[in-house]
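To: structure desk
From: M.T.
Subject: fold request, one chain
Message: Could you run this one when you get a chance? Sequence is below, nothing fancy, just the single chain.
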Amino acid sequence: MAGTRAAIRYAKAVLSLASDNKQAEAVQADMTLIGQTIANNASLEDALKSPVVKLSEKANVLNALFPSVSSESKSLFNILVSNKRVNILGQVATQYGILYDQVNNKAHAFVTTAVPMTPELEVKVMAKLKTLTTKEVTLNKTVDENILGGFILRVGDQQYDASVSNQLNTLKSKFTIN
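Reply: Done. Structure tokens follow.
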């Protein structure tokens, strides 16, 4: 993805500045808001990436949309505008979130179930998470009826597949090989 390396550099710089000013958590909230706003608004993303829209207009739009963000976030807007890199703001916000989580020993786990999770299943999933990572985990839940039952758990680059469909596929492969 074009601009990812630059986005990481800007995110590191903002995180460093925010940490020095003891504002890392506030900037994390800002970056979450900014990232979600850009991701959910295609016309905003198009305007930020458009070479036709003047840089000053892009800066005005960002300041109007996000009037209550921290001074570090506003500085990021100004730097991106002055460096003509405002088109990567969404990527910077995403990278900031990733770096912030790494620094604070946090991780996001994704669990997919066939039906909405019951409290008993959530206890099982959280127990399995403790074996996969020592980080503080935020659990993101999705429902996919195609897995038939059980759950699929992903945290970082690890995946634990305890779904019925996986077990059926394993049985199927055993029967077709022999």
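Reply (cont.): Helices lie at 4-20, 24-40, 42-49, 55-65, 71-82, 89-103, 119-132, 164-177. Let me know if you need anything else for the meeting.
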